[in-house]
Amino acid sequence: MAMRFRRPFRRTDIARSAVALCFVAGAYFAAVSALTAASRDASPDAALRLSPNDSSALANKALTVTLNGINAKNVAAVERIAQRSLKGDPINPRPYFVMLAVREVQHRPKDVQRLSDLSLKLSPRETALQLWHVERSVANDDIAGALRHYDYVLRIHPELNSLLFERLVDALTEAPIRRELIPYVKARTPWVGDMLRFALTNKGDPIAMTALVNESGGLANFSDSATLGRLLLESLAGAGYVERARDFYLRTPKASPSLLQNPGLTDASVSGLTPIAWELRTDQEVFASFDKNESTGKPRIVVQAPSERSAVVARKLLFLRPGTYTIAMRIAPVDPASPGDVTVNPQVYCYAGQGEKQALGANNLVTPIASGKHGLVVGAACSAQVLELKATSGANQNAGPVTIEDIVLTRAG
Question: Is-contact 317 385, C-beta < 8 A?
Fold first, then answer.
């Protein structure tokens, strides 16, 4: 079991217990993983059998026992091992860290503070020590201090990122922690962007992530702003927070408000942030890509599919007002000498529901009117819509690729 430092529970802990748990719970798992491995590599028991007074082996032995769980029963034995190590090597930081843990169990706070300061001076790179200071800072309501020690570990031990990010991401739902992170964002601290990407690709809370970006002054403070903006928008929309996705998009540097209601293929709609811009949905057999019409210079979607296949090839988020619409598009072969055998039909699904989080409906709102033209009715309860283009290929095995061009949405009433 990992070492845990305990203190009396105070009433104020109720307000910060979630913060403390988010910070601390994963920290010692990371320390145990990193440091017990080093102790095992040193084989302290084997080394001590050969040389009972080897100071490094004694230090590793004491550290291993400490990380596996120091308590009232074994604290005296651990202290003796650490003291023996210090006699042989008084500048080895590990025995000082062990003695810090010993004094913590013995409830000697002045000695704990003295040893922690000394340990940091001797070896600020010691991972377990930095993470111990994270826990101690949180216990003292010092979020800034906790982040300062996290920052040190994340800068010098990137191999621990995934372990530490998991707990730090959970903590971002707490406004005080986001507030203390703002200086790191504005300073473009490398691990902050990595942390957000980790969160957004591992189902972190998109509301908390968006709040951190907004409170920090926007995407301009991140080096990889385009990727983070896309991940944030996709996470918000995917979780049903479509109105927040719209509001966040409108705050991005290159926002194009017309994309909210216009599905036409333009430079902005094929290169902007998805899902407000068009997102291609290529599967293993049906391929879609963007290129430009050589004659007009306008963007288009090229679809290549084997015979008798069907798949959604593109999708886009819209915010249409209630009413009746028509959707028209032009489908043409890339090479007139090799006509395609692919039809493309639009599908529109509605986000609706009570409260901020919306659910995507299962009913397609589009009905065919004529070749290349479809009708759409948007109801009053439909706050946002997903427009999909579904391609279906025929039986012709020699058919060439086709293009989707000139997507036009017209309000009819």
Answer: yes
**pTM reported for the whole predicted model:** 0.76
**Tens-place pLDDT, residues 91-136:** 887 888 888 888 888 888 888 888 878 877 877 777 777 877 887 7
Query: Poorest-confidence range of 12-16, 320-324, 346-350?
Result: 12-16
Omega before 190 cis (within 30°)? no
Helices 206-215 + 175-186 axis angle, to 10: 50
For all residues of the chain together, what is the average pLDDT? 83
Report DSSP letters for 241-294, one per residue: -HHHHHHHHHTSTT--GGGGT-----HHHHHSSTTTS-EE---SS-EEEEEE-T
81 in Cβ contact with 61 (< 8 Å): yes
Give residue-wise pLDDT tens across range 253-285. Answer: 889 999 999 999 999 999 999 999 999 987 778
User: SS in 3 state form for 40-106?
Assistant: HHHCHHHHHHHCCCCHHHHHHHHHHHHHHHCCCCCHHHHHHHHHHHHHHCCCCHHHHHHHHHHHHHC
Q: Is the dihedral of CA 231, 382, 374, 408 positive or negative?
A: negative
Judge contact between 326 and 410, C-beta under 8 A.
yes
Name which of 392, 388, 327 is nearest 362 in CA terms: 388
> Could you give the dihedral angle defined by the CA atoms of residues 12, 18, 23 and 29, in that order, rounded to the nearest 10 degrees?
120
Find, among 285, 335, 341, the residue nearest to 313 by Cα: 285
